[in-house]
Design goal:
mainly alpha; elongated; about 0% strand; two-stranded antiparallel ribbon
Length: about 190
């Protein structure tokens, strides 16, 4: 049995697919990637809890210094948080202010949503670009944390950059669907 094989997203968590065939293929690919990343992030959170539990128990009962556990846990938490943003956006699960949307007419609300998706795509693309620059710098210079464990900093930067790239791609897809006027259908 594969870990995460029993995970089936609820109907409301299944991202819609655009009716346009090219955008539909892109959406299918991105949905598959997001689901695999979600499963890996769930595993990461379980491993993080095990690492932190070991850290507490070994410090309290065995009086063993734990310098690697804290950084490993932080790296896994950062990775899980950034990597799952694309999945959350695919379901439009980020915090939104519904009061504004309900007050606007459907036409004005569509303009609001398109403009928000466009600005979010630009911001997240810039954030991803800067994250990739940080990753490259850490990789090229061999940067590590200042602890005695000293893991390489390219690891969290790569997770941050990849997660923001997935989020930017998801936002771009949603923006393109709205601009193309492609009808959206739900899949299961």
């Amino acid at each position: 049995m594969r870990l995460g094989a029993e995970f089936e997203p609820e109907e409301s968590a299944v991202p819609p697919l655009p009716g346009n065939s090219a955008l539909g293929l892109l959406a299918l690919a991105l949905n598959w990637i997001n689901l695999q990343v979600l499963r890996a992030s769930m595993l990461s959170l379980v491993l993080t809890s095990l690492v932190l539990t070991y850290s507490v128990l070994s410090r309290y009962f065995l009086k063993i210094a734990t310098d690697w556990q804290d950084e490993a846990a932080v790296f896994m938490l950062v990775g899980a948080m950034f990597m799952c943003t694309g999945f959350v956006q695919s379901t439009r699960g980020h915090v939104g202010i519904e009061a504004v949307a309900t007050l606007l007419s459907p036409a004005v609300n569509r303009v609001r949503q398109v403009s928000v998706d466009f600005m979010s795509t630009l911001f997240c693309s810039f954030f991803a670009w800067k994250s990739w620059a940080l990753f490259h710098e850490a990789w090229a210079e061999g940067q590590t944390t200042s602890s005695s464990f000293a893991p390489p900093l390219w690891i969290p930067y790569a997770l941050m950059a990849l997660g923001m790239s997935l989020l930017a791609a998801q936002l771009f897809l949603q923006f393109a669907v709205q601009i193309a006027g492609a009808e959206v259908r739900r899949t299961k």
